[in-house]
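Hi support team,

I've been running sequence recovery on a batch of backbones for a student project. Most finish fine, but this one hangs at about 90% for roughly twenty minutes before it completes. I'm not sure whether the input is malformed or the queue is just slow. I've pasted the structure tokens below so you can try to reproduce it. Let me know if you need the job ID as well.

Thanks,
M.K.
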């Protein structure tokens, strides 16, 4: 990424519109100042830092020292704007920001000021903190070593994406907690289910015993009922046989009764006719008259009538005997019938009672089945369901335990990965810093970086330690314990190393680097070493390195920009 040009108007000391076109070639460049308003200040308070503050404000909406809103507008002006064009990955990216009215444009498209900031940072590819530690080392901004332990670690986390591993570890802890809770829940459920299964099995065993006892009792009862049924059937058969015989006798008696009754009736009828005939004959003989002509009977007719009367009387004699005999037989039949009918009725009643008892025995034999059958079946089904559910819950519990162990491992595993990335990055940063120290004149000096480590309790001790060893001391000492010149060299070396680290992690070549007053506290030799290092880096990395200084540095720069402060405002010109 490379800054091509910038337009400033109404921004702090740049009260008039200024367009600055940066050189196209890489190299080491100097930006110095000339204060024509106050000669005593010489190169100070001319707007050198303000020019780069304008770049930072145009991208992130505040200056390197935190000024924003109306504080950036030039005195006597009502509005300010900064427009800049970058070349990023071979494409032009234009950003324009205005104050009063507030406005933000990206590649000519107006954005919401707040929501659009994220799109601008996405287009530039750097957060504001990363920009300050890789592109613009401001005069009043803290270098990496100036930051506190927490700020150093936060910057490292942002650059290396260490928060990703922390989030993964936290997420693994959350998932492990969820799995642990699920394991506890499943084990509680298993415990309850095992209790239910044991109770169901005890109930099944009890019902099985009661059912078997009932079956034995029922078997004995059925034997008794079957015997009763057999006896009742035999008794019923005997009664039916006796009834059959009695009915036959009764029918024979009734048939004989009918026959004798008819014979008796026939005898009575014939006797009545004969008696009537005899009576008529006796009357005719007594009256001595012919029954036909009513004349006096002659001897011949009288003899004939007497003969007929005698014949009739002879006929009546056996009829009386026959009728008497028929009546005696009839009377006997009727006595037999009167005796047999109650016997038959009694047999029929007995048969009815036997049939009823037999039916009751059959119904008793066919009565409802085992009363424990439904309860036993329900208990058996409950046991099977509990066993099946117990198997499923056991599998789920085992899976949850496995998952818990896996996530529990990654709670530490992700922290270990984070520490591994951190250790490798620290080693890389140490190497870059120590290489720069040699070029800054601190030969055989070394910087040692260390951060958080896991303690004995499994937690993490957080901190960021910067120690320095020198040829004279031979021991590590905190970097703040050294003098101003050495401290400045350490600050610059660490910032160079961090800039290279950010560039490597972003996978992007930064075509510009700005150092505002990096030569403070340095001797003349130290400044020369610093310039040589910067020039070497500019050429090796094919970038523009800008040194902002109020000094007239004697060094073969590849170009210079002069910021002149006049009564009308700051003006930028190429020297």
């Amino acid at each position: 990424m490379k800054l091509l040009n910038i337009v400033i108007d109404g921004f702090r000391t740049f009260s008039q519109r200024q367009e600055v076109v940066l050189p196209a070639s890489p190299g080491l460049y100097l930006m110095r100042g000339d204060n024509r308003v106050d000669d005593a200040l010489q190169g100070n308070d001319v707007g050198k830092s303000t020019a780069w503050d304008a770049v930072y404000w145009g991208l992130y909406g505040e200056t390197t020292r935190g000024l924003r809103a109306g504080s950036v507008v030039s005195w006597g002006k009502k509005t300010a704007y900064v427009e800049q064009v970058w070349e990023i990955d071979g494409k032009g990216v234009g950003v324009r920001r205005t104050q009063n009215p507030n406005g933000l444009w990206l590649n000519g498209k107006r954005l919401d000021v707040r929501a659009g900031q994220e799109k601008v940072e996405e287009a530039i590819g750097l957060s504001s903190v990363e920009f300050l530690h890789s592109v613009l080392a401001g005069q009043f901004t803290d270098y990496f070593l100036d930051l506190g332990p927490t700020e150093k670690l936060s910057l490292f986390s942002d650059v290396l994406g260490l928060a990703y591993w922390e989030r993964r570890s936290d997420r693994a802890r959350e998932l492990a907690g969820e799995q642990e809770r699920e394991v506890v829940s499943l084990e509680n459920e298993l415990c309850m289910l095992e209790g239910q299964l044991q109770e169901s099995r005890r109930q099944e065993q009890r019902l099985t015993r009661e059912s078997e006892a009932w079956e034995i009792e029922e078997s004995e009862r059925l034997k008794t009922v079957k015997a009763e049924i057999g006896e009742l059937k035999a008794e019923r058969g005997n009664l039916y046989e006796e009834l059959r015989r009695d009915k036959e006798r009764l029918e024979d008696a009734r048939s004989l009764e009918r026959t004798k009754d008819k014979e008796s009736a026939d005898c009575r009828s014939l006797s009545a006719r004969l008696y009537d005939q005899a009576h008529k004959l006796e009357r005719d003989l007594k009256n001595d008259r012919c029954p036909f002509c009513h004349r006096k009977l002659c001897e011949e007719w009288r003899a004939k009538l007497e003969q007929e009367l005698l014949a009739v009387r002879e006929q009546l004699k056996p009829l009386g005997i026959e009728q008497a005999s028929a009546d005696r037989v009839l009377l006997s039949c009727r006595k037999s019938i009167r005796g047999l009918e109650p016997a038959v009725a009694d047999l029929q009643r007995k048969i009815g009672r036997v049939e009823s008892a037999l039916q009751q025995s059959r119904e008793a034999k066919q009565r409802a089945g085992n009363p424990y059958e439904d309860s036993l079946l329900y208990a058996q089904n409950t046991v099977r369901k509990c066993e099946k559910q117990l198997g499923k819950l056991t599998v789920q519990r085992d899976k949850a335990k496995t998952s818990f162990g896996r996530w529990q491992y990654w709670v530490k595993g992700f922290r270990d990965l984070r520490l591994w990335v951190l250790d490798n990055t620290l080693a890389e940063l140490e190497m870059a810093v120590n290489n720069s120290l040699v070029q800054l004149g601190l030969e055989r000096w070394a910087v040692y970086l260390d951060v958080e480590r896991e303690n004995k309790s499994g937690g993490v001790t957080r901190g960021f330690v910067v120690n320095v060893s020198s040829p004279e001391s031979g021991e590590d000492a905190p970097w703040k314990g050294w003098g101003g010149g050495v401290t400045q060299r350490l600050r610059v070396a660490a910032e160079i190393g961090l800039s290279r680290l950010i560039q490597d992690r972003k996978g992007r070549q930064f075509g510009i680097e700005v150092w505002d007053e990096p030569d403070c506290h340095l001797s003349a030799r130290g400044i020369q070493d610093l310039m040589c290092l910067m020039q070497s880096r500019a050429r090796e990395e094919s970038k523009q390195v800008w040194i902002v200084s109020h000094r007239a540095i004697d060094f073969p720069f590849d170009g210079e920009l002069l910021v002149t402060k006049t009564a009308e405002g700051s003006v930028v010109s190429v020297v």
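--
Follow-up from support: It reproduced on our side and the slowdown came from queue contention, not your input. The mean pLDDT is 85. No action needed from you.
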